[in-house]
Automatic annotation (TrEMBL):
This is Heparin-sulfate lyase. It comes from Eisenbergiella tayi. Keywords: Lyase, Periplasm, Signal. GO terms for molecular function: heparin-sulfate lyase activity. InterPro entries: Chondroitin_lyas (IPR008929), Hepar_II_III_C (IPR012480), Hepar_II_III_N (IPR031680). Residues 56-305 form the Heparin-sulfate lyase N-terminal domain. Its EC number is 4.2.2.8. The gene is hepC_1. One of its GO terms (cellular component) is periplasmic space. Residues 355-558 form the Heparinase II/III-like C-terminal domain. PANTHER family: HEPARIN-SULFATE LYASE. It is found in: Periplasm. Pfam families: Hepar_II_III_C, Hepar_II_III_N. It is an enzyme of class 4 (lyase).
Amino acid sequence: MRMEQYFDRPDSCYFVPDPEWAASYSRGNWEKEVKHILRIADEVCENTFLFDLDWDMERTCEPVTFREDVDWCCIPDEDPEFVWQFNRHRFFICLGQAWQLTGDEKYVRNFLRLIHDWMDRIPMEGIMQMGPWRMLETGLRGETWTKAIRYFRNSSLLTEEFIDKFAGYLRLHAKRLEEKGGDERLQSNWCILENSGLFEIAMALPQDEDTRRWASLALRRIRDSVWVQVYEDGSQWEQSPMYHNEVFHCLCCVVYLARANGIRLDPGLEETVHRMALADVIWRKPDGCQFIQGDSDEVDLRDKITMGAWLFRDPVLKYAGFDRMDFEGAWDFGRKASQEYRSLPAEKPGFTSACLKDSGNYYLRESWEENANLLHFTCGAMSTGHCHGDKLHVDLVLNGEDVLVDGGRSTYKDILLRFELKGNMGHNTTIVDKKPFTTFTDSWDTRKLSLPVNRSFHTGKKAEFVQGGHLGYISEGIFVNRRIIWIKPDIYLINDQFYATGEHEYRQYFHFAPEGCVSEENGLLTFRGKKNAAFFQFLTEGVSLEEYSGIISRHYNQCEENVCVRASLKKEGFASMITVINGGDSLAEAVQAELLDTWSHTRFINLNETEVQAVKITAGRRRYVVILCHNELFHSSDAVIAGDCFGVGNVCVFDVSDVKEGERCYGGEVLHV
């Protein structure tokens, strides 16, 4: 194939339209990223491979070096994820960027050496079908190969013989994806990742009957898969931000290429991709990263949000993204796109707290500032093997810094660590009688499920509320529910309710960020991070605290120790555990929190803790009373009296900061009726 036949359309029809400009832009705007790419490219030239790019799905911590021939089927430490990450060939793009940044032909020579070696030694049939030619990697190479070649297109080292061979192998990829990527895969992220690769191959090759058929087939599969996979709230159904964003990235690539080549997409498809970008905004932490949820790593979301902002010309996305086109976006989309992004206005979101009701994820957010407080609560359905047993889990960020964290994933191998991190006790949730409410048969399959129920969310002026329960213990006659009251901006009350008969042991788990230290004195638990402080008060009589060493994995193949605390309570019948948390910067102090007696207004009797409880919270000059009803108790024209507060809601918050002692306060802010 002649060179001009392969590159038969204007550069604007594909990725990497302005590589020379992108090299200059990157040196001026993304110096850290440039150094990272050059380090990777130099190591690859020496047959050394370390996968530590932000969006590498399975990162590695130890480099692997091949002294002689590259072993494309290598499985270090018995983890097949290495061979799959390896055969996605993301490092080919790094070699291309390094050549554009330096002009050093060694990067072109090593690209040709490695890709020739792979094509010559890795036939489609006969070599480890779940290895280099696994369907997912076949699809992902559709992106990495077709992008990489664009970086090298002006090199004198590229021959027409190579281009002919390269194009032939792209056709082999496309035929495999056409034949094996059927409808039975529509519910999996694989379907979109594979078929976006098929579409990219179809767009990269000279246009003919085959490429037109592949493009049409890929878009049909992607459209159908999107309808299955993406909730109305914008979340990809696998309950893992890492894989949500892999799907989002691939869909953005499809939208871009379709527009660049004059292909009309279903408007509903583009609208869905836009919603996925807005979901990223909702779950973005103050530091710009996604939460570690399910099988996710802690990765900065702003490059993905930036891509969405430019594609959809959305000022809200621009506000949550970078102020200029990100490193990869500059290479992928070029000068014109970067200029358009720079001129796009930024608009602060018109909301702070939000719920993704379909996926069951809730976010109580103070503001969009870097030092904001943010609580994430999850009570959604299990979906795929990437889900964890995290119902009722809470993440907490104070003063922009993590306090309570998810344990992450670390590995996909069937080993104890996988189950410790994936199971209920690896999350900030509750269990009963030391029994998990979710169990797993192996790394991917779930044995015992638990239906999420009783989910509600309310935003008020003084306070906000979220709750959710599950039926994980219903066969034993136990219903579990968690209620969270946020008194703005810095006080959180967690009320765990256990409706049961007989005696049981109830446990709450708290996993703390590894950067901080935890201490306990007289039932007050204190966490001090690099720039924040948090205080935990356990108000339920009989609760015992136990500190132990846990594990957190912020990236695949990486672990570190953190402090965990287990709060335990043995109780006959109904039990309520109340935890008050407050904090802020390093100068913050613990609030005063105490339980109050509660009375029935019309029956003139003291109400017991199975019916209602009330908490008084004092924070300097601020004073609040929170009423928490556990059962129906409003007989006739009844009300609950706690202190000087008179309320009829199921959950009420009274701001009594300016109320004189002995003066009755009526109504409060009703968060749940």
